């Protein structure tokens, strides 16, 4: 016989497959639903390719890493300074030889919509070429 002063053994918890399954606690999303896209917060730097068009000087370095939160106007000013253009000369930027983005458009937005192979391709010139 066991001693009545002894404490009874605590039952060990036995985990069944039903209890271990996450489907009984919280339903999982079907695989067809995409996960929320938080990548726009994680991208900090975007590679851009700057290609010359028309009668503008060609930059020696074409590939640049740009802060994703910079506006397109910042890139236009950068090119203007890099090429040492006169103050009255303008720079026009085009995305994939198709359209001119608004100067206040963020690089991130253009990359998300028009980026290819991990980079954003921009064409620059002194006069309007496309669009």
From TrEMBL:
Q: Which residues cross the membrane?
A: none
UniProt keyword Transferase present: no
Query: Which membrane topology describes this protein?
Result: Peripheral membrane protein
State the UniProt keywords alphabetically: Acetylation, Autophagy, Cytoplasm, Isopeptide bond, Membrane, Ubl conjugation pathway
> Record's InterPro entries?
Atg12, Ubiquitin-like_domsf
Q: Which Pfam families match?
A: APG12
- Kindly report the protein's main subcellular placement as a broad class: cytoplasm
**Compartments reported by the entry:** Cytoplasm; Endomembrane system
Molecular functions (GO terms): Atg8-family ligase activity
**Region of interest: Disordered:** 1-38
Q: What GO biological process, any one, is recorded here?
A: autophagosome maturation
Listed under GO cellular component are: Atg12-Atg5-Atg16 complex; autophagosome membrane; endomembrane system; phagophore assembly site membrane
| Entry keyword annotation includes Acetylation | yes
Q: Where is the composition biased (Low complexity)?
A: 16-25
Q: Record's family?
A: Belongs to the ATG12 family.
The record's listing under PANTHER family reads:
AUTOPHAGY PROTEIN 12, UBIQUITIN-LIKE PROTEIN ATG12
This molecule's function is given as:
Ubiquitin-like protein involved in autophagic vesicle formation.
Q: How does it assemble?
A: Forms a conjugate with ATG5.
What is the name listed in the Swiss-Prot or TrEMBL entry for this protein? Ubiquitin-like protein ATG12
Recall the taxonomic lineage recorded for the source organism.
Eukaryota, Metazoa, Ecdysozoa, Arthropoda, Hexapoda
């Amino acid at each position: 016989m066991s001693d009545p002063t002894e404490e009874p053994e605590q039952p060990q918890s036995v985990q069944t497959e039903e209890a271990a399954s996450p489907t009984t606690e919280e339903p999982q999303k079907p695989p067809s639903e995409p996960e929320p896209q938080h990548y726009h917060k994680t991208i900090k730097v975007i590679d851009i390719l700057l290609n010359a068009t028309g009668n503008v000087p060609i930059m020696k370095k074409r590939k640049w890493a740009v802060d994703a939160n910079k506006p397109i106007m910042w890139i236009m000013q950068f090119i203007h300074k890099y090429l040492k253009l006169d103050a009255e000369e303008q720079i026009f930027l085009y995305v994939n030889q198709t359209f001119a983005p608004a100067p206040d458009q963020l690089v991130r937005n253009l990359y998300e919509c028009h980026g290819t192979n991990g980079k954003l391709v921009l064409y620059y010139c002194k006069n309007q070429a496309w669009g």
